[in-house]
TrEMBL record:
It comes from Halomonas halmophila. It comes from the Bacteria. The keyword Oxidoreductase applies. NCBIfam families: PRK07067.1, PRK07231.1. This is Sorbitol dehydrogenase. InterPro entries: NAD(P)-bd_dom_sf, SDR_fam. SUPFAM superfamilies: NAD(P)-binding Rossmann-fold domains. GO terms for molecular function: oxidoreductase activity, acting on the CH-OH group of donors, NAD or NADP as acceptor.
Amino acid sequence: MKLADKVAVITGGAKGIGLAIAGRYLAEGARVVIADVDDRAIDEGLKQLGNHDRTLGLSLDVRDQASIDAMVAEVLEHFGRIDILVNNAAVFDMAPVLEVEAASFDRQFDVNVKGLFFTLQAVARVMVEHEQGGAIINMASQAGRRGEALVSTYCATKASVISLTQSCGLDLIRHGVRVNGIAPGVVDTPMWAEVDALFARYEGRPLGEKKRLVGEEVPMGRMGRPDDYAGAAVFLASDDSGYVVAQTLNVDGGNWMS
């Protein structure tokens, strides 16, 4: 019970990695808020978690400051505090550099960078005002460690997440707030159907081939699964990582070493 009585907010928490982390946090004794833009997915996620008094589902659009502020206020009203934030909400798109559209570029930066930062800021303010410290975990990506020809904008957003994790970690640790990150590799979630279709379009591949190939290329021989990230998320949220600050942990089956 490494997170007993802690209150954790997980953005994009209604499915995939976010929901896997939510389930593990519950098992470790935390009270968990899944905040997501998809209300139907929130309902389904709460059912999977067991619909008990230690869970709360809230609508959240991280592109909207009013939505962020309302979410934080509701968590405080319901649970009285926030000890952990997992900044997991993100979107993906890809195209050759010459075909990237401004709308796609703006959407990815609005969610993956701006939304992440201002959610972090709102929650950190609560942690600082309550003089309680806390742990903030930003979900980055192996895409933030290097460029990829067809994924220029997404890679740039995740590189920004790693950089923000470093800067915010160095600034907030004086208040007892530890900011760290997790960089997943390729993860087998429903979103990969969309990713695979985009690779099929731009690389002329049959559907399913890119997903198979990227899984085979991982040193461990398979894609990641949502549950593969829950342990790292518990570690970074718990006292076990009390001396870990401004780091982004690679959890990718050996794909990237840094």
